[in-house]
Design brief:
The chain has 314 residues and is of the alpha/beta class. It contains 14 helices and nine strands. Helix 13 links the parallel strand 8 and strand 9. Helix 3 crosses helix 5 and helix 5 packs parallel to helix 14. The longest helix is centred in the first third of the chain and has 23 residues. The two termini are 16 Å apart.
């Protein structure tokens, strides 16, 4: 079997995530401890104990998800050793792209964590400066969503932001435009329109100030060519070279996430099994909408890691 590793993005967080993995794995605990020291506040405690309001804040949940996913991967390496599933490709949803690049040895843990923390802070600041929102549109094709955005936008900002799977596209923009889109979605044939609980209009032009700040912050950071292909959100193709990695990560802040295309690229290039590494199981649900019956394992608990160990021993 040819496997790929998938890493979740913002929205996968929940209080208590990966606490049992950190308890069972010294390697996972070590990464949480390093993160606490580097960030200057007890990120691990917020992950394990909350409160939810603090964990859900954009500037906290982004480093929290990155560290939780990296810690899960560390626990897998520690427990499985040479039995770790060999990944032919990797990808991450939005924030998860940083975890994928870290997993592919394109960037070290400390600078990746610093970038993720800065990204979360920049996006939180942009959201506070220009309030916006996001709406998940169900049951429409891309051209129908584009028409909805044009009509509901009424000259303001409203754009497709996440092409998650067939029939699930998230739009992003000004609050009033999002409200109009919710009300008008049925007229365009949508099965539903669900407002997302996010701080702002992510992956839209309303994040331009965050992208500009990230471009400055990322410039001195050292990236290496990934040891395994990492499929980029912006164009659903593997990253190539340090400079292009930086450009794509900056572009990602204001560009739509092409997750459906990214998964299809992996499937079309020989991947036939997936491991979702980190909190939640959002990506597994999306994968099954993209490719019904696709083989995917959620590695989001100590029990899941233990099952992998048992299977490797057989």
């Amino acid at each position: 079997m040819t496997a790929a590793l998938l890493f979740p993005g913002q929205g996968a967080q929940q209080v208590g995530m990966l606490a049992e993995v950190a308890e069972a794995s010294p390697a996972a605990r070590a990464l949480f401890r390093l993160a606490d020291e580097q960030l200057g506040f007890p990120l691990s405690r917020v992950c394990f104990e909350g409160p939810a309001e603090r964990l859900n804040a954009t500037d906290v949940c982004q480093p929290a998800i990155f560290v939780s996913s990296a810690a899960t991967l560390a626990a897998m390496h520690e427990a499985l050793g040479d039995g770790l599933p060999e990944a032919a490709m990797m990808a991450g949803l939005s924030l998860g792209e940083y975890t994928a690049l870290y997993a592919a040895d394109a960037i070290d843990f400390a600078p990746a964590l610093e970038l993720v923390a800065q990204r979360g802070r920049f996006m939180q600041e942009a959201a506070e400066a220009a309030p916006g929102g996001m709406v998940s549109i169900l049951g429409l094709e891309e051209d129908q969503v584009a028409a909805l955005c044009a009509a509901a936008g009424d000259g303001g900002v409203l754009v497709p932001a996440n092409f998650n799977s067939p029939g699930q596209i998230v739009i992003s923009g000004e609050l009033a435009a999002c409200e109009r889109a919710e009300a008008m979605a049925g007229d365009f044939g949508a099965r539903g329109a669900v407002r997302l609980q996010v701080a702002g209009a992510f992956h839209s032009p309303m994040m331009a100030t965050a992208a500009a700040k990230l471009a400055e912050a990322i410039e001195p950071v050292e990236f290496r060519p990934p040891r395994r292909p990492v499929v980029a959100n912006v164009d659903a193709r593997p990253h190539e070279g340090a400079d292009r990695i930086k450009r794509r990560l900056v572009e990602q802040v204001t560009s739509p996430v092409r997750w459906n295309e990214s998964v299809r690229y992996m499937l079309d290039n020989g991947v036939d099994s997936f491991y979702e590494v980190g909190p939640g199981k959002v990506l597994t649900g999306l994968l099954w909408r993209i490719e019904r019956g696709a083989a995917c394992r959620c590695v989001n608990s100590a029990d899941a890691v233990a099952k992998l160990v048992g299977e490797a021993a057989r």
